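Severity: low
Component: inverse-folding endpoint
Summary: output formatting inconsistent between runs
Steps to reproduce: submit the following structure tokens with default settings.
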């Protein structure tokens, strides 16, 4: 069933787990995520990001996302990830998205707060949930999170979210979800990531009721640290790179084994879907944190 993100986050807080949030720019990804969530009997979030327009335009994928969400046996929110352009977000509202991330984290704190506050006032009456970001999520590769440049990763702490600032931001804006920075990066990791779990605990302790904490960059943070982040209060985890890069090596083997004979694309697409479903299941089981 299609629901708002807020509704899912309420359940997450009640049962102390994090909902998985997955980008679904292809039909195979979309079906893989829905199958995995139904298999586990857990709610899920389907994402579309502005920078995926070159893979598939929002007008094409949105009706599929909302249709799959409506027909799913579990609660599903349809969410815009890292939305930055106002007209694009209005298009998402028209297309039936039930949740929008309005990412103004590249602006000075005051401006970020002001813009998000106005956006919340605008879409909350429509039943649409809002996620914002405070602190900055660094990128480990150019092109991810709306095509921003690769970040300087020599000192991740300079991107970290300040707990007091986060609490004030949540109170002033009334956002339903807040992405915080504590050691994760977008894309894949160079070496073992080190998450500042204590920071999550401090932010969580100051958060007003009704604002859930979000972790971006969930690919490659490892089972133990991810579990610790959920235990500390993370309620939504964005996960994409590990899922989206999983099918290629498997498909490559199939093509290689065919030894130059024709390979049907339908078979490859189906196989890609199965590989991604397994990846999503594996991730969601960690996020559920023995719910
Ligand atoms: Zn992100």
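Observed output (run 2 of 3):
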């Amino acid at each position: 069933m299609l629901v708002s993100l807020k509704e899912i986050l309420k359940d997450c807080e009640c049962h102390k787990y994090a909902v998985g949030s997955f980008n679904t720019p292809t039909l195979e990804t979309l079906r893989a995520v829905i199958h995995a969530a139904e298999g586990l009997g857990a709610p899920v979030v389907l994402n579309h990001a502005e920078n995926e327009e070159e893979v598939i335009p929002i007008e094409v994928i949105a009706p599929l996302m909302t249709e799959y969400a409506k027909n799913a046996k579990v609660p599903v929110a349809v969410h815009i990830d890292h939305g930055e352009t106002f007209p694009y977000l209005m298009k998402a509202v028209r297309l039936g998205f039930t949740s929008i991330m309005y990412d103004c984290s590249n602006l000075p704190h005051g401006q970020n707060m002001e813009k998000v506050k106005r956006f919340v006032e605008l879409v909350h009456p429509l039943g649409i949930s809002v996620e914002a970001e405070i602190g900055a999520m660094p990128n480990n590769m150019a092109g991810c999170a709306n095509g921003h440049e690769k970040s300087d990763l020599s000192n991740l702490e300079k991107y970290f979210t300040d707990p007091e600032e986060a609490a004030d931001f949540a109170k002033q804006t009334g956002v339903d979800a807040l992405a915080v920075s504590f050691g994760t990066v977008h894309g894949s990791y160079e070496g073992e990531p080190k998450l500042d779990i204590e920071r999550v605990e401090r932010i969580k302790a100051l958060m007003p009721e009704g604002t859930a904490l979000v972790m971006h960059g969930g690919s490659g943070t490892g089972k133990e640290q991810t579990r610790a982040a959920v235990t500390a209060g993370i309620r939504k985890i964005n996960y994409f790179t590990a899922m989206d890069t999983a099918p290629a090596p498997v498909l490559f083997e199939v093509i290689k084994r065919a030894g130059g004979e024709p390979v049907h694309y339908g078979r490859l697409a189906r196989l890609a879907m199965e590989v991604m479903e397994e990846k999503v299941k594996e991730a969601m089981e960690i996020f559920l944190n023995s719910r």
